[in-house]
């Protein structure tokens, strides 16, 4: 992950038509660990009965509601308004990162465009979010894993075998002379290939715990390397 800190400025854009209202605070809490949230906007037709429950959430979290009337039945004009605002914010050159909150694939091109301008892109959406949007982000987080979620309700991931293959590939290509791979380096490589990867999806609190799910095929240990003792892993072959 790109190095973000409290001095980095983040713009949060919420597609209220395709976002979980109950997860909004958890999303902001997640982002607060990566920088300073400067802009918080939510888009939708606030005259619609479908969005009436958002009012309390917007007020409590100081999110600016942006009105967008549905001019044509069956067409989502919210997406267009969000994209236009995102480009205006991009051209202001005030932001280091954007967070797009939506389960809609229509924001795939926007995420790609922001990345072309060297802007870090967070995506937040449900498990149903199309993979095109998930992969267009630098870091995509499933909203189902945010907050106090019992482990048995976590969405899981049918691609766990693929993730294991990626870990083995990284180990084969980057392990040291003693056959150990730096866990932090492996996590960064994995995130580049699978932006939607998050250990919490599997009920693991950390990447270390996630790797331990593959035992005995993968062994995790602390190793002395220079002046430090990083966690490293080794594939048992």
Automatic annotation (TrEMBL):
GO terms for molecular function: RNA nuclease activity. Pfam families: NYN, OST-HTH. Residues 159-236 form the HTH OST-type domain. InterPro entries: LOTUS-like, NYN, OST-HTH/LOTUS_dom. CDD domains: LabA_like_C, PIN_LabA-like_N_1. PANTHER family: HTH OST-TYPE DOMAIN-CONTAINING PROTEIN, SLR1870 PROTEIN. This is HTH OST-type domain-containing protein. It comes from Marinobacterium aestuarii. The lineage of its organism: Bacteria, Pseudomonadati, Pseudomonadota, Gammaproteobacteria, Oceanospirillales.
